[in-house]
Write a structure and sequence with these properties.
This protein is of the alpha+beta class and 327 residues long. It is built from ten helices and 14 strands. The chain has a seven-stranded mixed sheet with strand order 9-11-8-12-10-13-14, with helices on both faces. Strands 1-6-5-7-4 form a five-stranded mixed sheet, covered by helices on one side. A two-stranded antiparallel ribbon has the order 2-3.
Length: 327
């Protein structure tokens, strides 16, 4: 495609015609020439807005872009309504690829009952692979908004599912040929399929019902980054048992193959939750088939400690995600 805004016929054919799911709250949505979207809310509700780009992979980028945004909204206790997409493409990308990305995004939205409300599509020399930047819009009842900074000393820290599942899936898809030199195809396929676990909508809803004080989707920087960010936002310390942090064997072995730290690997699909009664939350999550573990507590002061039977270490501010060493 040629440099510049996507031509109107491409926009209509491969972008707008792929948008099918609709929400009653969206009063002004995606259309040629529209620069804004409009959403109506009840008097006792508030907007919750999130933004995130997908830059680490071009595989399944439409689905990932929407899912990461859904998770951000869910982590705030918000019900997702819709997204606005900025799609930046290099010249070599075909219209069929654009249509495929839109179909992925629409499928992810439809699954969560969200609407693609608008956005911008451009072909540009500024990028070498497709990039999607997403603005997510959700709603929450007044007084029910949950932040990353709500943890208090004495609260339990719960981690859902397993850390590193997003990074493991991305690496398995991007580096499949290299992985075949050591692993069976069935092992690689299992790792690729971890993207089925990326939504945190279900655990967020359960955590809100169980009195969660803080929630944080474990994204770039991995679980170590998420623990630091929750502690920093909340002004608390941490005491976390490294051996209790849930991690899949596939993640461990793929990280060993590429010499990566799984605890610093992007982990969308896993949620970090601070809650007064972690045992009760774990029980409620497990009842719904969602694996979860109490891994430690928030503490007084600023010491953020991760320990095992052999040693303990102090957490540091998040560094570049381990994913970028590979893809």
């Amino acid at each position: 495609m040629k440099i510049g805004k996507a031509p109107e016929q491409v926009l209509k054919r491969s972008v707008l015609q792929q948008i099918k799911n609709r929400r009653a709250e969206v009063r002004l949505g995606a259309s040629v020439g529209e620069d804004c979207a409009a959403v109506s809310l009840a008097e006792d509700e508030m907007f919750v807005i999130s933004t995130d780009p997908i830059t680490g992979t071009a595989k399944d980028i439409g689905q990932l872009a929407v899912q990461v945004t859904i998770n951000d909204l869910a982590s705030a206790g918000a019900a997702p309504i819709g997204v606005m997409l900025t799609i930046l493409l290099p010249e070599r990308v075909s219209e069929n690829k654009l249509k495929e990305m839109m179909q992925q995004a629409e499928a992810a939205c439809a699954k969560a009952d969200m609407q693609i409300m608008g956005g911008h599509t451009e072909i540009t020399k500024a990028v070498t692979q497709p990039i999607i930047s997403v603005v997510g819009v959700g709603k929450a009842k007044k007084g029910e908004l949950i932040s990353t900074g709500g943890a208090r000393a004495g609260m339990d820290l719960v981690i859902t599912k397993w850390i590193g599942i997003e990074g493991t899936s991305i690496i398995a898809k991007e580096k499949e040929e290299q992985l075949r030199s050591r692993f069976a195809q069935s092992f690689i396929d299992e790792a690729k399929g971890f993207d089925a676990y990326l939504s945190v909508l279900a655990e967020a809803s359960i955590a809100v019902r169980c009195g969660a004080a803080a929630m944080h989707d474990v994204t770039e920087g991995g679980i170590f980054g998420a623990l630091w960010e929750m502690a920093e936002a909340s002004g608390v310390g941490l005491f976390v048992d490294l051996k209790k942090i849930p991690v899949r064997q596939e993640t461990i072995e793929i990280c060993e193959f590429f010499e990566l730290n799984p605890y610093e690997l992007i982990s969308s699909g896993s949620m970090l939750i601070a809650v007064p009664n972690g045992g009760q939350l774990v029980y409620e999550l497990e009842k719904e088939g969602i694996h979860a573990v109490v891994v430690g507590k928030a503490t007084e002061g600023n010491d953020r400690i991760v320990y095992s039977s052999e040693e303990q270490r102090f957490l540091e501010p998040p560094k570049a995600d381990e994913l970028y060493k590979v893809v």
